[in-house]
């Protein structure tokens, strides 16, 4: 039975959804406080790191405290954290003194690039993971299954940053058909189509590196579920009626795997953002990952907090949406 | 697989083929004369005195946009910039300057002595991180183009550090700005220099500077200067295609690779020797122990192993051979000599266990606590090996830079390994050797060395100053407030047309960059 959207959600379900939302809001606020407190507990003084230079002269204590105030680093830990939270409540992400720009602008510049990588990586890991998973799970133990599963196990045993570097080495250095890093060539084309193609060329390798990180997980989840389905009566029955090929894979496996894939997606969102950090650093890609990494090294509290706030909001809301979707799909059976 | 998948696969394949083809042409209009400089580092902030990122490159970018009162000629000697002439009074307490009447702010406003006076007052309230104005007692505008600066005490380095290093701000823009560190309006970047920042893409670490029309200080060689964030390998490839002209931070390991791509490579000691500094109140308050360490360490081996040729031996007399005040003759040498070291250590009260060969103080074995940052980790390991072979135990702690700055001598370490600049006017010696900041040598001694350093900073007669500094270098190499181990090289690669150069004593305050604004101007 196919429930109509909206109407299919009972009052109990709606309450559960609301509860989920509230829980995530609480997590979000907790994260904000944590991200305000933790970096400040790092050993050392942010002012020293910010002003660290060999030509830096010895500042008087009065100069230091004036600087501290100008840079928003003054006051006790509680005062600083309170100031941070009040600012964020007003919707102000603050100002990055290292970049000389409002954090919101830095994030607005960087987010599209990370989003592009994730948008490109998602069809890759979903396509490869699901197709191979179904193929392997359709006939568990058959030769194809053994080959694919062995290959995936091998891939799973290699740390993802190593596969990223291997991709870089193979396709950008030894056989240089793709660029080594960056999001665009030094002199981007002016016409829109060639420009789009250049951007795609630059995004391909990091997107693949990001996708490989997830392919293996999807493969094993889908294979396991598909192997279970292969033993179910309706599949055996369908096969005996001569249903095979695309129709069998789509209608008998695909549709029944949808809730599992959806449930997995809600976790993937978080891992993808985390993985984008090392992928962007390896491919010098100008996304939020690189920005956050640098912010940690530079003690750029405002930027770090802004980046985490935006990422956390994205991850939690997507996670909530996928959970709700999974619920509806599972309910459909 | 089903026939319905086929068109999708075909489209995907086509995309892949398209994507892997190299772009047909790059958009590089031939009319614009453009210089492209690559740097592998991240964002350098905005090109204003208050929004530049810490470190040399940030200052260098501001220096494109903001002229200082005094500049440098090709050899690094002082040259007119905003001030066409200056005169220091006999007693060294007054400096009179005449401004270049042609000088204009980028918005066309005349630059007057009122701007200079305003800058000094403004920077007293909002300190410039690199330049101290504590010695300035008064500044008065005598006419729109003439002014007089009065000092509290004579300062031999006033012109060559303050006037050369301090950027002048436009009064009509900065007046009333209470917090210049959050003033990032485009107006904040109205300066007097040869270029203006016309585009800055932060996420990509990309800057475009455009030549200012009718610049008073000469003709710009390039219409546009682009600074792009690129990893050195990618930059070499791009340079081979003619897209990059200067690679501003070439690692030593890539020197041959760059040469294979027809690039010229320039190497210069960065003037930031790696120093082994001491806890002067603890184990190393004894000069014999400091001298013994200098005899134990085989510094050439340190360079060969930890830097593979990317460094040169540093002078042990503080000033390095790039300085105009360097005097090799007076500096003592400590060639690797374990026997001399052992004798010195014995005299300092340590003893060597005959059986184990390990050193001990009052019967308990000596373990030296050495701290450093990740950058010098390899060097620290080689030092540990050398000291270990001599019979001294060393424990190394590698710390993140914020944590490293909080370490206290005595409490946390006996030895600290870190780089430190020796560039710029020698007035900086007072702070770098005797100061108490984390990267100062924090030396006390019997006071003789400090008196010499103070005397040379007041000596207005160059010959007398040179004699004092020669003496200082001799005494420094005897007392060894720190052991100057080696001088890491700064390397750049460039094509045949662009001609960057390093100043012997660095740009203005001692910044070891070769892509300064002077290379962007016609001679």
Give an account of the 3D structure.
- The complex is a heterodimer of chains A (333) and B (523).
- Chain A is mainly α and 333 residues long.
- In chain A, 76% of the residues lie in helices and 1% in strands.
- Chain A has helices at 11-41, 46-50, 61-70, 77-89, 103-138, 143-157, 160-174, 192-230, 233-240, 245-282, 288-298, 301-332; strands at residues 95-96, 101-102.
- Chain A has a two-stranded antiparallel sheet.
- In chain A, a hairpin with a 4-residue loop joins strand 1 and strand 2.
- In chain A, helix 10 (245-282) packs parallel to helix 11 and helix 11 crosses helix 12 (301-332).
- Chain A is globular and about 85 Å long.
- With 523 residues, chain B is α+β, with helices and mostly antiparallel strands.
- Chain B folds into 2 domains: 8-239 and 495-520, Periplasmic binding protein-like II (D-Maltodextrin-Binding Protein, domain 2, 3-Layer(aba) Sandwich); 274-489, Dipeptide-binding Protein, Domain 3 (Dipeptide-binding Protein, domain 3, Roll), CATH 3.10.105.
- Chain B has helices at 5-20, 56-65, 113-125, 158-165, 171-174, 232-240, 255-260, 287-296, 299-307, 338-347, 377-390, 401-405, 429-434, 448-458, 462-479; strands spanning 34-39, 70-72, 78-80, 83-88, 94-99, 136-143, 146-151, 195-201, 206-211, 224-229, 246-247, 264-269, 274-278, 311-313, 350-352, 359-361, 364-365, 367-373, 393-399, 415-419, 482-494.
- In chain B, strand 8 (195-201) and strand 9 form a beta hairpin.
- Classes of the chains: A mainly alpha (333), B alpha+beta (523).
Short structural description:
With 333 residues, chain A is an all-alpha fold. Chain A has helices at 11-41, 46-50, 61-70, 77-89, 103-138, 143-157, 160-174, 192-230, 233-240, 245-282, 288-298, 301-332; strands spanning 95-96, 101-102.
């Amino acid at each position: 039975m196919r429930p109509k959207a909206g109407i299919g959600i009972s009052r109990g379900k709606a309450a559960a959804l609301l509860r989920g939302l509230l829980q995530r809001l609480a997590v979000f606020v907790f994260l904000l406080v944590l991200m305000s407190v933790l970096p400040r507990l790092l050993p050392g003084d942010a002012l020293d790191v910010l002003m660290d230079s060999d030509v830096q002269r010895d500042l008087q204590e009065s100069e230091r405290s004036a600087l501290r105030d100008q840079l928003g680093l003054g006051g006790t830990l509680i005062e600083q954290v309170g100031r941070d939270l009040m600012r964020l409540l007003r919707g102000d992400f603050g100002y990055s003194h290292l970049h000389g720009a409002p954090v919101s602008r830095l994030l607005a510049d960087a987010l599209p690039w990370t989003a592009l990588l994730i948008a490109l990586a998602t069809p890759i890991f979903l396509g490869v993971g699901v197709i191979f998973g179904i193929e392997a799970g359709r006939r568990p133990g058959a030769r194809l299954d053994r080959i694919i599963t062995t290959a995936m196990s091998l891939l799973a045993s290699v740390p993802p940053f190593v596969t990223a570097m291997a991709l870089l080495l193979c396709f950008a250095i030894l056989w240089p058909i793709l660029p080594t890093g960056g999001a665009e060539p030094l002199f981007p084309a002016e016409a829109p189509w060639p420009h789009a193609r250049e951007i795609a060329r630059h995004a391909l390798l990091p997107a693949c590196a990001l996708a490989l990180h997830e392919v293996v997980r999807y493969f094993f989840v889908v294979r396991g579920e598909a192997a279970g389905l292969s033993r179910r009566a309706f599949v055996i029955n369908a096969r005996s009626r001569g249903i095979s090929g695309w129709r069998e894979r789509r209608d008998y496996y695909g549709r029944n795997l949808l809730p599992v894939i959806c449930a997995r997606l809600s976790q993937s969102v978080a891992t993808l953002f985390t993985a984008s950090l090392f992928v962007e650093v390896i491919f010098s890609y100008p996304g939020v990952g690189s920005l956050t990494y640098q912010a940690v090294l530079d003690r750029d509290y405002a930027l770090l907090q802004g980046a985490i706030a935006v990422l956390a909001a994205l991850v939690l809301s997507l996670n909530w949406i996928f959970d709700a979707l999974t619920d509806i799909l599972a309910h459909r059976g | 697989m089903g026939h319905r998948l086929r068109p999708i696969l075909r489209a995907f394949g086509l995309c892949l083929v398209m994507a892997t083809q190299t772009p047909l042409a790059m958009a590089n209009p031939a009319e614009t004369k453009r210089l492209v400089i690559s740097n592998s580092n991240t964002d350098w902030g905005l090109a204003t005195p208050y929004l530049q990122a810490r470190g040399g490159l940030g200052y260098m970018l501001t220096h494109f946009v903001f002229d200082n009162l005094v500049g440098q000629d090709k050899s690094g000697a002082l040259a007119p910039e905003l001030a066409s002439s200056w005169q220091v009074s006999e007693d060294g307490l007054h400096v009179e300057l005449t401004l270049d009447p042609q000088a204009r702010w980028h918005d066309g406003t005349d630059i007057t002595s009122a701007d200079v006076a305003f800058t000094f007052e403004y920077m007293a309230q909002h300190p410039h991180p690199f330049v101290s104005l504590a010695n300035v007692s008064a500044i008065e505008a005598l006419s729109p183009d003439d002014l007089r600066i009065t000092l509290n005490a004579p300062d031999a380095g006033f012109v060559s550090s303050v006037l050369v290093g301090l950027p002048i701000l436009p009064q009509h823009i900065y007046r009333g700005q209470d917090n210049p560190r959050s003033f990032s309006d485009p107006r904040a970047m109205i300066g007097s220099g040869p270029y203006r920042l016309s585009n800055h893409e932060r996420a990509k670490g990309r800057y475009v500077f455009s030549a200012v029309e009718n610049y008073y200080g000469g003709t710009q060689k390039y219409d546009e200067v682009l600074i792009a964030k690129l990893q050195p390998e990618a930059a070499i490839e791009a340079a081979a295609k003619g897209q990059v002209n200067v690679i501003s931070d070439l690692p030593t390991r890539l020197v041959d690779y760059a040469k294979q791509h027809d690039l010229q490579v320039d190497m210069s000691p960065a003037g930031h020797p790696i120093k082994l500094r001491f806890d002067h109140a603890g184990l190393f308050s004894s000069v014999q122990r400091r001298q013994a360490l200098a005899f134990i360490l085989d510094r050439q081996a340190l360079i060969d192993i930890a830097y593979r040729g990317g460094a040169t031996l540093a002078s042990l007399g503080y000033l390095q051979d790039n300085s105009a005040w360097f005097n090799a003759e007076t500096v003592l040498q400590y060639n690797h000599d374990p026997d001399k070291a052992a004798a010195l250590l014995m005299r300092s009260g340590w003893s060597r266990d005959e059986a184990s060969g390990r050193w001990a103080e009052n019967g308990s074995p000596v373990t030296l606590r050495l701290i450093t940052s990740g950058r010098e980790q390899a060097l620290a390991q080689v030092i540990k090996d050398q000291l270990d072979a001599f019979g001294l135990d060393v424990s190394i702690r590698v710390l993140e830079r914020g944590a490293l700055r909080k370490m206290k001598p005595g409490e946390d370490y006996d030895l600290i390994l870190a780089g430190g600049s020796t560039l710029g006017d020698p007035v900086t010696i007072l702070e770098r050797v005797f100061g108490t900041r984390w990267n100062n040598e924090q030396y006390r001694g019997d006071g003789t060395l400090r008196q010499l350093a103070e005397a040379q900073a007041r000596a207005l007669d160059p010959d007398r100053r040179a004699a004092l500094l020669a003496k200082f270098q001799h005494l420094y190499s005897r007392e060894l407030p720190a052991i100057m181990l080696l001088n890491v090289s700064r390397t750049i690669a460039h094509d045949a047309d662009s001609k960057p150069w390093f100043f012997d004593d660095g740009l203005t305050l001692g910044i070891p960059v070769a892509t300064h604004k002077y290379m962007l101007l016609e001679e």
